[in-house]
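Page 47, continued from p. 46.
Same chain as before, 124 aa.
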Amino acid sequence: MSEFVDHRPPRPAGGLVVPSPDSVVADPANREALLVLSDGSVWCGLRIGAGGAAVGEVSWRAGSAAVGESTLLDPRNSVLLERHLRAAASAGSQLRGCITAVGATTPLHAAVALAIARGEIGWP
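Result:
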């Protein structure tokens, strides 16, 4: 009896090939991401900078929301998001947020990002 040899490259469990964040960022048409705040609000926009996810305190800088020091989001509703963040700051609370990786824009991604922003689950 002959031995079966599979010459295909190995694939992750579930049979899905997940592209690296760098390869996704290289495609300018695929830069959508979500900013999910700990208060439950979800904002869609275009990522600026690295394509991986980020979590931390959210601040407003030059028309973009920043999470941490290096990850930015250019929100579609920038005026509304700026008002939202300023209202939270004037109430004395600093919002935590999570920006999803590029292309992670489904409701499931939003739910996981919300749990991370609230500290309900750990950062992977």
